[in-house]
Amino acid sequence: MIRVLAATIGSWAAGELLAAGIARAIPLAPRAEAAGVGLLTSPLLVTGLALATVAARSRRRAVGILGGVSAGGALLALLA
Amino acid sequence: MTKADRRRARRTRLLALHRWAGLLAGLLMCPVFLWGTLAVWEPELDLWMRPAITTPAGAADTVRAAALAEALLRAGARPSDTWRVALPGPRSAATVLEWCGAGACRREVVDGGTGARTRPTAGGALFATLHFALAAGRSGEILVGLAGLHVLAVIASGVWIHLRRLLPDLFRLRLEAQAAKRLRDAHVLTAVATLPFMTVATYSGVLLFAFLTLPAAWQVRYGADRAAFFAEREGAPLGTAPRPASAPARDALGLAHAVRLAETVLGRGKAGWIAAPATGAVEIIERDGATLPLRRRRVAVAADGSLAADPPAAPAAEARLERWFFGVHFARWGGTGIRALYTVNGLLATGAIAFALFLPGLRARRGGGAWPRVERAAAIVATAGLVPATAAPLWVDRLLPREAAAVPLDAGAVAVTLVLAAVVAARVRAPARVLLAGGAAATLALPLLDVATAPAGAPLAGARAAVDAAALTTGAACLLLVVATGRRA
């Protein structure tokens, strides 16, 4: 149960970071559209991440997936 | 490690996600799905709770109802109050009046055909409130939203696990097998049969609360100003649109004439809501449900009778997609057939969750100790306890006197019944049967309560008769379950 809880909470945090990065990194789109796209995709991102994290072969790989996605989201937000 | 071993290991890990996330979210989502299914019939349940409304559904005219509402508001509200009116529609003749001023709002529901007042009640909206917020305000909305996110993960992992067997599982129900196998078959069968419904209902429900549970995307662009997001996406409020009116339109025109004018744009009988401030234009909002995407056109009627409607420009693609999802979720777009389809799917989805909660997989893994007992008791409360808990507010609604609209009282009845169910689950032998028997008694006697407490002369027809028939059917189904489980035991 602890692993599943950690995976879902971690996926939520990483998915939110990526959604924030995406919403910030669409400079050409009107901001309402960018935020709307972010909102629509957030649940799918979190679900996909939870699946990928739990299905990962090892804990290290699971942490790597979440860390990579979080770093990607943060990088997108910083560069935008 | 061979490829087959890796696949098996991955399946085991996903099964853990499916079971644990399913258990955590399922205890909450079982009632949420059932109450959501009931919320599809909100106007009909509302009419059951307001037997004083005698005008048949669809017979009340919007213009006449607006005139009646205005007369009542002028008599009861202060001149500085803002008025809001929900007009009668094809499914209910109820007119909801609300007047707000000095930081407080008052609400009254009347018969849109006769103007007769109804007693204060939580109304059919109670089940919608329980569905999306457990009648616990913002914290309830967040809880349900997070549980919805878990359900998405549960659905996705379930599909992954069963992907190769989706079709065969749809036709497998081993009634003569052991209890665990029967439950597993029933869970998989109902879950696979309602997979599209569960996925779309959960995803659209999560979207409705995405502002609370997944706030990053719009926080980045708008900070705390959520209203700016909607204003930018949906267009400026009509109050600031062209033709500003200095004179109060509701005094110059009257609500009935304002509705008549707005319906030249919206269509005859299509006005759904009126917002009439003490100054400026009266805003008429279209009744939703005419189309699958949730659409509520607005028309502002100024004091001189001029109209300002929503701009014809189509919203952005993502906004259209979102409206489509909201339309699907609210289930107001179709007729009785579509609502019946929602009901069947909703009940089967509730059943899929309930069957899963009784699967012994997790309990068997945890071995002895208190955990299996706690888990089983929680499952019993969330499933068998749900029937009496859902019937309780209907009893309280008719039996207890009240002064104001009583969502807390009726939601309290649900909470108290669930606590009692927990006591039964902890103390009584065969608690599920006891709770189901209690639920059967509560629902079978509901029509008697209806007849005994309805005002004299209120006809037992239409929505009231339908709700009574549904209560009888539910009671009979519970009795059958009690008898069937007794035989097997």
Q: What descriptors fit this protein?
A:
heterodimer; A: 80 residues; mainly alpha; 3 helices; 86% helix; B: 489 residues; alpha+beta; seven-stranded antiparallel beta sheet
Task: Kindly describe this structure.
- The complex is a heterodimer of chains A (80) and B (489).
- Chain A is built from three helices and no strands.
- By secondary structure, chain A is mainly α.
- The model of chain A has no long low-confidence stretch (mean pLDDT 83).
- With 489 residues, chain B is α+β, with helices and mostly antiparallel strands.
- The longest helix of chain B is centred in the first third of the chain and has 37 residues, at 3-39.
- Following the backbone from N to C, one meets helices and strands of chain B in this order, namely HHHEEEHHHHHHHHHHEEEEHHHHHHHHH
Taking Cα atoms only, what radius of gyration of chain B do you get, to the nearest Å?
25 Å
Report the major sheet of chain B: 7 strands, antiparallel
Task: Tell me the number of helical segments of chain A per DSSP (H or I, 4 or more residues long).
Answer: 3
Please tell me the overall pLDDT of chain A: 83
User: Please, how many helices of chain B?
Assistant: 22
Can you tell me the residue ranges of chain A where pLDDT is under 50 for at least 5 consecutive residues? none
Class from helix and strand fractions of chain B: alpha+beta
Instruction: Summarize the largest interface: chains and residue counts.
Output: A-B, 38 and 38 residues
According to DSSP, the number of beta strands of chain B is 7
| Order of strands, widest sheet of chain B | 3-2-1-4-5-6-7
Mean pLDDT of chain B: 87
Overall shape of chain A: elongated
Beta-strand residue percentage of chain A: under 5%
Overall 3D geometry of chain B?
globular
Distance between the termini of chain B: 45 Å
* SSE ordering of chain A: HHH
Largest sheet geometry of chain A: none
